[in-house]
Amino acid sequence: MNKVLELDAVSRNFTSGIFRTHTTWAVDHVSFTLERGKTFGLVGNSGCGKTTLSRIITRVLRPTSGSIRFEGEDIARLDRRQCKTYHRRVQIIFQNPEASLDPSMRIRDSLLEAMAIHHLGESKEARMEKIRATLRQVGLPDYLLSRYPHQISGGEGQRLVICRALLLEPEVLLLDEPTSMLDVSVQASIMNLLRDLQQELGLTYLYITHDIELLGWISHTIGVMQKGRLVEVGSRDQVMDAPVHPYTKELLYSYTHWEGGTIP
Amino acid sequence: MVPDIEIQHLSVYFDTAQGPVYAVNDLSTIFRAGRISGVIGESGSGKSVMGMSLLRLLPNTARVTGKCFFGPHELYSMPLRQLRKLRGAAIGLIPQNPGTSLDPVMKLRRQLTEAITTHGKRSRKEAEAQAAKLLQQFGFEEPERILNQYSFQMSGGMNQRLVSALGLACRPGWVIADEPTKGLDAVIRNQVYTVLRQIYAEHHCSMIVITHDLALARRLCDDIRVLYMGQIIEQGTAEEVMEHPYHPYTAGLIYSLPSRGMVPIPLPDPNRLSHSGCPFYPRCPKATARCGKEKPGDYLLPTGGKVRCFLYE
Q1: What letter would DSSP give residue B139?
Q2: What's the predicted TM-score (pTM) here?
Q3: Closest-CA residue in chain A for B183?
Q4: Do the Cβ atoms of A94 and A164 come closer than 8 Å?
Q5: CA distance A141 to B310
Q6: How far, in Å, CA of B290 to CA of B293, rounded?
Q7: Mean pLDDT of the region B269-276
Q8: Cα–Cα distance, B238 to B217 (Å, whole number)
Q9: What ipTM does this complex have?
Q10: CA distance B123 to B135
Q11: Which residues in A lie closer than 8 A to residue B191 (C-beta atoms)?
Q12: CB–CB contact A210 B185 (8 Å)
């Protein structure tokens, strides 16, 4: 099966106010498909609904309408057990690694806990063995295991969060701005790591960011979101080199042209 | 006449259980008036600490040696009362994290007028009129409405423009902008760039722009200083530094940009960690045995820039 995750007309609104209700469509009829082993890049500016969409996919939020199928199964209809498996197989990496790790837990315990929750590994020994192997895979030294999150750097933190996700043997990684807090040199090393891991493990990525240049480097397919709507979807080359929608053109333009910045 | 800012052998360090940690290490440079000087480097390179030390806004735990001159005045031997007259009036600050730099329980009106009345003897009415005018310059079409709101009601880009307006409220001759584009998307980043350009063009401000956004530095600045572990390792015009980097670290930084190939700088070589030479030695792809033993000096480049690397001795 080549289609891992299929989104079909997913929408979500938020209402505010009591007397005069105001409805905002954060995500408005978004449909796309994640293909196994490939990267789908989702780009859009702040407030366009990218993060709401990732919350819907992780089942943190329910869609107002529309459906998401994971390997053909509607994720809204999963029972408790299936749901837990879904959460193991679809992992999410957030922007801020420090906020993703419990500050009062040593790194070792944070990593062990994730495996224990999903009953992976026969014994603690077997789990530790796996943790050491995965640490090597993401390029981290063993001595970090006894550290606390505040004692490590941002780049190491993001590698650790990726390591924790990999321990659960996921198929899909949702990457929500994983490098926007990092320096360019660290960003380059994380992006290279992600590309290598995809080749080794056949992972499927949904990469969410506002940086269209980054997407051009990592994506196979790019979707452009504006105000909750998916305004353009196409292969990397088509979107980067021959954009059709005016908003895509504007996004690409604002990366290469500086003087054009107007104040609204 | 706006004076230059000169730093002489400035070191800023923090005492820790493992001994002193240097954020800024024996740094000397002159920021020329009338120019936009960029300071680039990774997080932890000491660029923000250097910027804050120019206003003596460091935490109490920081220990400072060396001198900072603002024209004839030495900032560290100046009484605090006199320094306060310089802060905001002569050297403005556009701080990092605009969202947290504004007071969430104070209306923007009060924050902006306060900045104006602190330094000039103006009535509240005059100050308010000036604040409204200032907001208009920064692209707010309805300043009266904005003045009645709070910072949390603004978007990230609006807050960035607000702190920029605050920093410039007293029309200082110098402005220190600390990471003005951190975490902003391309469209808002362009707005900020336009605002800073506008400030420079209309107020004839001299600027120090501290950033890790290399593309912004290239576009905005006249010259660039590259900071690594609290030292300036390369310095030159923006074009020279970004298009023909000399120092291996600067080159590494530039080639890790997505548009320049996304090649990461190598991680430190564990065998090279204990050394007494160049700070970049453990990660340098071009290091020789000498780099681990001696500290390179500043070598002048034919283009007029300076680089701290034995390759250009």
Answers
A1: T
A2: 0.84
A3: A180
A4: no
A5: 31
A6: 5
A7: 85
A8: 7
A9: 0.77
A10: 18
A11: 261-264
A12: yes
